[in-house]
Specification:
Elements: E1 2-5, H1 12-38, H2 44-52, H3 59-68, H4 75-83, H5 98-107, E2 111-114, H6 124-136, E3 141-145, H7 151-163, E4 167-170, H8 211-218
Parallel strand pairs: 2-3, 3-4
Antiparallel strand pairs: 1-2
């Protein structure tokens, strides 16, 4: 996922592009509903559209519908049974590519941020490739601090951020209340990275740093993850 920060929300070109993206989401949702109906689960699209309104349709909306209609006991169970890759209601996304997403954000005056790099279940090699491709596309920043990271994970993201001369961001990837996703906890940046918001005229320019976090990151060797060129 690419986050656009500090954009001009009234940029006509950006709004037109968002509308095209919303249309892609609708087409995907229609296909998901068609597949569910074929599996004797009717009414999904109507229920999802009623909940979403003018918002963006996601698989989570379908998951909530399936929980409400008794198809599973939890969101996790719904995804495993119906919405994960290879399951009845799964439809691959048809979003714009990485370089286009970065360009859209830049054209709207914003900064492009690579969100939660560890959530994609990539091994070290492919994680480095992702960050390399993002930087090559003109990306500005990456989230290096999120709740529930290990010190080693934070060190590795910090290293990649410095290697590619990206600014740093934080984030919890919070979509909805859950028992496992902490909101706004332990989101402290180390002192030797530049926050993505440093030039926005905000005070303070960085979040207060936890001493132990500084020690963990400062002790990490900058060559721990050699990035291929």
């Amino acid at each position: 996922h690419i986050v656009g920060l500090n954009i001009n929300p009234d940029c006509p070109q950006f709004l037109a592009r968002l509308a095209s993206q919303q249309q892609r989401r609708l087409e995907r949702a229609q296909e998901m509903a068609r597949r569910l109906e074929k599996a004797q689960i009717p009414g999904a699209l109507e229920a999802v559209l009623a909940e979403v309104g003018d918002g963006a349709i996601t698989r989570s909306h379908f998951a909530r519908f399936l929980v409400k209609t008794g198809r599973a006991d939890s969101m996790n169970a719904v995804f495993k049974k119906y919405l994960a890759r290879g399951k009845t209601g799964y439809v691959p996304n048809n979003w714009v590519d990485l370089a286009s997403a970065v360009q859209w954000i830049h054209d709207a005056g914003g900064q492009a941020v690579l969100a939660h790099p560890l959530k994609y279940n990539l091994n070290g090699r492919y994680l480095k490739r992702l960050v390399t491709d993002f930087a090559a596309a003109g990306g500005d920043a990456m989230e290096i601090i999120s709740p529930q990271q290990t010190p080693v994970q934070r060190r590795d993201l910090w290293t990649l951020c410095l290697q590619h001369q990206l600014t740093a961001s934080v984030g919890s990837d919070f979509h909805q209340p859950t028992t496992w996703n902490e909101l706004g906890k332990h989101l402290y940046l180390p002192d030797d990275v530049t926050p993505v918001w440093a030039n926005w005229g905000l005070v303070p320019k960085r979040l207060t740093q936890e001493p132990e976090a500084t020690a963990v990151l400062s002790a990490a060797p900058t060559t721990s993850m050699d990035t291929p060129r």
